[in-house]
């Protein structure tokens, strides 16, 4: 999973929005708990923003160069699907730099 170390090269910012207690955000909360430390250690200066808000649908926002943003709705996704979505967002950012 070499792409994990390239997040800072492909994106400008990553925001994950989730609810602290809703079942819809359960897999997103677990994803953050299991992956944040590793992702942050591989990209120490990169802004990973975790935003908790009661009742919000889980989402992942990627910001690229020139203020371009992409959103992925994480509702109903498993941890592995969330990881794949993040990988796709990182790859999309690398494609825009080519």
Automatic annotation (TrEMBL):
One of its GO terms (cellular component) is mitochondrial inner membrane. Keywords: Disulfide bond, Electron transport, Membrane, Mitochondrion, Mitochondrion inner membrane, Respiratory chain, Transport. Signal peptide: none annotated. InterPro entries: NADH_Ub_cplx-1_asu_su-2, Ribosomal_mL43/mS25/NADH_DH, Thioredoxin-like_sf. It comes from the Eukaryota. It is found in: Mitochondrion inner membrane. Disulfide bonds join 19-53. The keyword Chloroplast does not apply. Residues 20-93 form the Ribosomal protein/NADH dehydrogenase domain. The keyword Transport applies. It is a peripheral membrane protein. Accessory subunit of the mitochondrial membrane respiratory chain NADH dehydrogenase (Complex I), that is believed not to be involved in catalysis. Complex I functions in the transfer of electrons from NADH to the respiratory chain. The immediate electron acceptor for the enzyme is believed to be ubiquinone. Belongs to the complex I NDUFA2 subunit family. This is NADH dehydrogenase [ubiquinone] 1 alpha subcomplex subunit 2. It comes from Raphanus sativus (Radish).
